[in-house]
Each structure stands twice: as C-alpha cells, then as structure tokens.
Amino acid sequence: MKTVAAHAGVSLGTVSNVLNRPDLVSATTRDRVLAAIAELGFVRNESARQLRSGRSRTVAYVVLDAGNPFFTDVARGVEGVAEAANLAVYLCHTGEDVRREDFYLNMLEQQRVEGVLITPTDMANSRIEELRRRGTPVVVVDRNPGPGVCSVSVDNIHGGELAVSHLLEAGHRRIAFLGGPMTLGQVADRLAGARRAAGRAPDAEILVLETGTLNVAEGLRAGERLAGLPAARRPTAAFCANDLLALGLLQQMVRLGLRVPEDLAIVGYDDIEFAEAAAVPLTSVRQPRHLLGRTAAELLLTESRGGPGHQHRQVVFEPELIVRASTRLRPA
Q: What is the pTM of this model?
C-alpha cells in the first residue's frame, strides 16, 4: 500500500479509503489510485485485513438445495445488495442434512463472516442460536421463527389456501398434496393452508403423499403412486409443495399417457422459471424470490453494522397464484 501511495502521489490513508471507503475519495483521486494499483499489480492481503478488523468481507447464504432454482434466484437478490456493500457471498448447500448444516455454520463462524443468511433444515437447531449468541448476525430466509431474530418469508399458509381454493373452484374434490419431509416448516405450512381451504368444502378430501425431499425424482415417484390408485379413488388434482415436485409429477403423467389437466390438474409452488416453460405450463404459487434475497441481505447488513440498538424485524410477503394450462381446461 505504501508503494501504491508513492506511485499515485497520495497518502497511505487515501489508498486505504479507496480500498475500504471509496465514497470518501474524489473521483479524480480514486481513479489515480486505481490506476496505480493496476500498473503495480497490487492485490490486497485480505487475511491480514481480516486479522485487524476481526471480520471478513463476506456473508453466507446456507440453503436446503442449491440445485433448486428458487434458492439460486433468492441468492441473486442477496448478491445485488452484497456487491453494493463490497461483500462477497458464499453459497452453502446442506441437502436438508442437519449435520451438514452444522458443519457449514462452524466453518463460517471460524471464517468470521459478517453475517449468515439461512434457510434452516430445522429451526430448532441449537447451533443457529449459538452462532447468534456469539456475535454473528443471522437472518432466517423463507421461514418466520418469531420476534427473536430477523427473518424474511412468504405467508405459506395463505399460499396453500390459494392453491387448493383454486382447485376447489375448478370443481375438484379429491386433491392430493405432495411434499416432504413434514419436518420442513414450509411444507407443513403449505399443507396447513391446503387443509384450511378444503375445510370450507364439506365434500373435499386431501390425500397426503409425503415425499422424502422436494425434487423432480420424488415427483416422478409420487406420480407412479397416484397412477396406481383405482380410478374411483384417484385424486383429480394435485397440489405440490414446490415446482420441482410438480414438474416431476407432470412428466410422469405424460409418460403414463394421462392428460394434464383433464385427468389430473397440477399446482406447484415457487413459480420458478421452468414452470412457465413446461410442456404443459404449470400453475404455481409465486414467491417474490429476488425480493426475498434483497430484503434479507439488507436486514443482515443493518444488523451487522447497526450496533446494539438494532431491532429485529420479521418481513412477511404475500404469495400470488399464477394460473396456467396445468389447471385450466381448454375450451371444447
């Protein structure tokens, strides 16, 4: 840094400001310092900076499934806020495994990340509270654990109501719910909303098919189970706890020669990009994925930089039903 300062004809403090607080330096001086950095091939020693400050210039997003476009879309929202704050983002995939989640939380605390965003496998995991108690800010994403922690979520109970109310309005009374494991709060809430809606129709029935996880392969397997039921008992519609399950179910229906929506209407959840692009465009409950990520990152930065007076906030967004061909009968 001293060499850069001498080369640019500025003080050491000015170089430090350009690297850490560029808004304090005039554009002309900043450009001169950046040119000197480029000419000299200077690369800052981030490890040394971290030792001095006690924090790295990183935040982390711990997700259930990095292969699910929902989480990568949320991560893009996080990245936009982090980049503006000159922070990098680690993306950690737990695979819905608490032990793996604990491993990442331990590593991230050792790395002294500025904060952790997490969609937890189990909100009761004591490691999350330990992390917060020892001084690492945590924001929960896609869950609302209550007033003791910042969180950003969507009203999943209402989302489940929207999905099943739509199917009831279309005349369906035997409706399957696909999702699992039920230990995931999002799945349990969506089922609760489905049952609440069905409870308003005395002749409605919800058949629960619990899945091991929330992916296309589980949707394919659930499709085989549904197709194997006697026609008189087979549901005429299915509400899936996420779009990956719904897309697997849709694919299996096509393979087995069953028509969507004539033989089985299907509703998904999340409204990922692939939902609209499916062979039969998928009706889905939309979550504002990028907005979830942006809001969560903003809450995290506010907490990490706001001092002891920080007030935890729980931001809850409303879902929206997007109706497409998978539930909408075509005119005769």
A: 0.82
